[in-house]
Amino acid sequence: MSKPLTIYKASAGSGKTFTLAVEYIKLLIRDPQNFRYTLAVTFTNKATEEMKTRILGKLYGIANSLPDADDYMEQVSKAFPEKNERLIRSTAEEALQLLIHNYHYFRVETIDSFFQSVLRNLAHELGLAANMNVGLNNREVENEAVDNIIANIQHDNDPLLNWIMGFIKEKIQDNKSWNVIGPIKEFGLSIFQEFYMTHQDRMRQLMDDPEYFKIYKEGLKRKRSEALKTMSDFAKRYHEIFEDEELTNKCFYRSSQSASAYFKRLENGGFLDGKGPNSYVAPALNDASALVGKAADDHQAYAIEQRIVPLLREAEAQRVECLVTVNSVDLTLRNINELQLLGRIEQEVNAINEATNNFLLSNTQQLLHNLIDGQDSPFIYEKIGGQVRYIMIDEFQDNNQRSRDFLFLLSAKPGLSAEDSLKGENLVEDKLFFVGDDKQSIYKFRGADVSVFKQLGEDLKTDPVDMVYNYRSTEYLLNSF
User: What is the pLDDT of residues 66-79, one digit of tens each?
Assistant: First the structure.
């Protein structure tokens, strides 16, 4: 039965590459012309050459009955029981000759090479100049951008200067070098990661608004103050009931260590340690009588059960939400200058590239993603060639989301929007074939496997964008804009 796609997920040494090569050869045995319509993608030039060599070598081995190709012959024979051995070997010989004489159609290439070929075909639509230089060294231009930014700090209130001074103090406290230029340059490479590039258009808009970050910080601080006030108001209400009902600590189980202690923690912000009610208070959440002490008379017991415990339950229901809000705001405010720094570095990198007519190779996938967003699949087929009938991916775990989306778009049924093309049920049957091992993702620096933390408290968001980046060996979470 046909399937939208085939995925082989297996450990190292289990034969993933063997399986991929067998599947490629099966396509050629089915029709020797299929090499013209097949795209096989790897991640290094060495892997590309190894794959080509293996396919050609095994085709030769099958055609000439060589023992080292018997395992391939066995798999092919199982796939085509209607073909006898002689027919399979003659077809392998025909496919081999076609590959040799049409080697430029033998499309086993790296993912970067593939996207560059797409880029050339879409140069007009992307507005790329004919004399454009393709830059390969992200680090070189980013280092130049950081040097330019630091050399042009204008005044003492510059957020970048404040961030640098804070970082220097941190280094000194940790008995490390105060020279932060190197770490800043390392951190700035984050602008080439997928998790940043996905939101770079929004970041550019924000960086063009000099008041945005100031207003945003003020809004965050208000949210923090409101959350703290919500908790302190519970303490205020508790004291009002305490006095109104003429209660004393002795009226409560464990005296001042229970209800009074709980509401005091809310009042002074002690709840921010994340700890819930202590063992004297927690039982009352289910059984109101558990909070009543032996010294309480009937009136006092009634007041505790009917007024104090409901207030306790209401406060406890709000405590976690306020905790998330305060901690999220604190985390964001601690790191928002770093986000502004990334925006500054990206601005400078773009200015350098524009001045030198340079286009960074790392921008290719994002540029293509922006182009196809909202376009229908026939447009893409027309521009890059609708002849790609089969797509085979080696080390699939190392693809980032942008490359996966583009490959899925190429594999979608015609006439669909870009959004619908990414749905599994809309893929052309038997077009995609992946092999990979999620434990062997060695290209995470390309943004292939970046976790995105969510749920910071919806009320903190002014736009639905979450961002995560790695910095100083710690994962920092930013609720962004």
Answer: 999 999 999 999 98
